[in-house]
Amino acid sequence: MSREIINVKNLSVSMGKKKVLDNIDIKFKRGESVVIAGRNGSGKSTFLRCLANVILPDRGQILFSNGIARDKIGFISDRLSLFEDSTVQQGIDFHSSVFGIKEFDYTLVNELKLELNQKIKRLSMGQRTLFQLSLLLSQHPEILLVDEIIHTIDPYLREKFLETVIDLMGSSQTTVIMVNHTFSEIEKIPERVLVMEKGQFILDERTENLSEKIKKVESDTPIPENIPCIFKRESEFYKEYFIYPFDEGIRKKFPYEYKDINLNDMIKAFVGGQYVKDRNH
Amino acid sequence: MTRHNIDFSSSVPVYRQVIQAIKLEMLSGRLQPGNQLPPIRELAKILKLNPNTVAKAYYNLEEEGFIESKRGSGNWVNYKNNKLDNLRMGMVEDEVKDFLERVFSLGATLEDVKNLIERYSRK
Amino acid sequence: MLKTEIINVLKQTFYFLLVVLTLPGILLGTRIVRDQSFFQIFFPIFQFGLLFWALFMGISLFSTERGQRGMEYLLSLPYSRLWLIGQKILPRAAVELALYFVCMLLYVQGGENAAAVHSFSFTILYFALFCISLSLSASSDNFLVLFVFSLFSLAAFLCLVFGVFWAALQAKGYIFYEFDIRPFFTDTVDRYLVNLIVPVALGILLPLLISLSLAFRKFDMRPAKTYNKRFFKFFVPVFIIGLIGSFMFAHQTLEIGYTRYFLTQDLQVVEANEYTGVKIYDGQREYRVNMDVYYFWPLWQESPFIYFWDGFRVGRLSTLEHTAEILYEAPRGEWIDWRNWGYDRTMAFLERKRDYSDTHLVLLDIDSCDVKKIPLTGEPFKDYSNCMIFGADKVEGRRFWLIYPQGRLEEKPIYQLWEDGRIDSIGASQKWPCYINGTLLSYAANEIILSKHKEGKFEVLQSILNKEDFHFGWYVHFQKKLSNSPVNEVYGRKIYLTSDEKNTGQAYYTEYARLDLDNFKIEELDGLKGYLNLYSADIDSYYALEMDDAAHEANLYQVKEGTLKLLKTFKDVDLTSGLNSFDVSESGMLVKKGNKIKVYALPDLKEVKFKKL
Questions:
Q1: What kind of fold does domain A4-205 have according to CATH?
Q2: Chain C residue numbers touching A70 (CB-CB < 8 A)
Q3: Tell me, what's the ipTM?
Q4: Which of A130, A195, B51, C15 is least surrounded by Cβ atoms within 10 Å, i.e. has the fewest?
């Protein structure tokens, strides 16, 4: 049986005249961990919201494999949308009643020392983030969608958040799809990297392959044009070139020193390249 | 093994680095046969890795014969004595190779290297 | 989630009721308002409060989510959009209805006097506001925008409702009708209008709700513009359909003013309506009669003329030329009584001022249009200002008319009015008297007194025992022939009210009898149910139309010498709505059911087709 859990077909979403998602076709497997990167306004959040059923597609469909009901999808975004005037306990009760949770796990709530009578709007961003995460966890989600939330909270809570997600991945084969701008902390968590630009995926690779496919060259002189370069920075003193897709043939043909780069720099290269493209148009 | 930082930008696959780190623990004696390794989830959390990566590392260690995975109760260190010696020698050899590569690229000669080794090993 | 919604709605309703209940108390307590009971101040506040409440309930559909930044959360919950909106609307609709019933209950219990808005208009406004504000609730995040837009939409809605009716009236040719909407708000709206306004209102409101549910299925976190576009995409076609449907409904069923139909001797149909005027249909074509008409009442026919009365004029319609001419017009401010009598070529009728004062007997020569007026002042007419002519005759070349006062069923005098103005008192009668075959029938208790004119005055011939107190000739007043023709029989009726022995469950119950004018024998007629309308078509035969309300049937009989011959039964007849009528005249029968007219010619009752009718 295929382990496919989400199948997106011809997904298109427009906001007014602007096409935010442009005919997207993509599949996700059960237990897969994915990070989606890209410029602001590229459509990442919209894509995630479509998966969460918060935004409905104009065209195309999102198919979930059998057995995945809507209540098995957990979604958290930087809007941290909850009923603010409710207290923590009321929020828990409401969420439990909607998702049919009989016994709520107060571990995270207790760790954060949240007062159950406190109104949600009085919580700090960090507290709210982890509170919402604990709500999602109580659903035992099969799919977890996280939208640009890591960088808005302090490092301690950030680590806590990640540890909770890793725990979830390890314990229940949850598919995790995260939209992120920073990658240093989550460097080795996702197995698959997607880069989105103008409503389309311009990169879809497994992380283990990526380090073999993207290399950096630092040189004093410009490198030949026929080396596939997605981004370059050329100044008087320093020139660096990011090569994609790289293969051993290129190394044989052009004997430069090809350095490995981390995920953050890879994404930077991709995104930077898009900015350059825009400037040249 | 948490002391050994995973180098995310290295071309060495992460799971290999984890394996290496665990082996070092074993070599240094901090992990003895019969000790339990941290559960996959826990190690993943500590190292900020994908649990699959840790699982892969443990799987390889089991294949190589250093640990034993018992269903339901976790992963346990279990190796034969000579295995460790072989490992030690192998790792030392790798270290020396790397070391020599690095010092020679700085332009040192074998004589310089030998002299320095002797000087510092006396301390 | 329904539970949370219900709790929220109830909480809000509680606060609303609190305000509505304490405000009158404050007004009374601080003596801003005096001399009124709590209820008198409370009820209008309650009414207006409810109207605003209906508006608020609608536009606040998503106010909690919007105010608490919980919209995205709400949409991410595992509920379908339709389910979500259902959960939201259901408790609000329930509270709406509950409060409405409370209001109506209070209205019936005395609120009617204290009400600021009349119950029907209140109902329309209340539900319209709710529907309008509900359907707009998803189209903006801004409460103020929604509020203002809802009010504009309400105004548009009211204009449309009246617009539909105006358009329907125009389409039907009601050129004289001036549409005044004030009664809608202040007066009791009659049942007929209610049955019209409600469907039209629904035809305009339902598209809003339908569009809401259709558009909401794709509601999401995108800016309101996206949703609004989708809403209008559904709304425009559904609304046009609703509007057209309402218009067609109004056009079909709307009837302003009373339309009378009259079958002529030569089987043409005259249609008269105070707003659309007079038209004549001859089976092929429709002719508009060029005349101003206020009220058209046909009096009698003398081919090719139909003599008619319209309140203050007497005229005649030519069925040949399809024109009308006025023979006599009452002076300004005066009114012609329609109870008139003809003899030879002279038509006699009473003319009086609107307050029944200043009565004249007017004698109009049909051919020359010469007029002679005899003032009816002095003794008998001072007390009984509302009299009627029930007979006329000529004796030794002098004409006289018989007059009897209108009023309660008690003994009243009968007068003989001579052409020269002389008035003779000729007895009294407990019921309307009847003058047939030169014989005066007047009524005493269980007795009919027959008198005849002999040697200058009326003398009693005999009295007949009228055990059952039948009233004969009650229909004779409707006979408008210019000459009295001898008849050999007259029919009578007796009306029983429910308190009578023969209680059949109806409000009244009638029995009929025949009085033979040769041997003066009374025989009761059996087998007649319900109400009977008797028409004397000509000298020899009567036609009776029997209305059986219980069985919803009408039967047409030919009545001759006490025997009834059933000619036709009309089934499925509803006589209570006022939109149906059955008229029998000498040439045939005209049946009106709603907007359909059918004509049957006598004596064979074959249907006559009219193309334009």
A1: Rossmann fold (3.40.50)
A2: 77-79
A3: 0.90
A4: C15
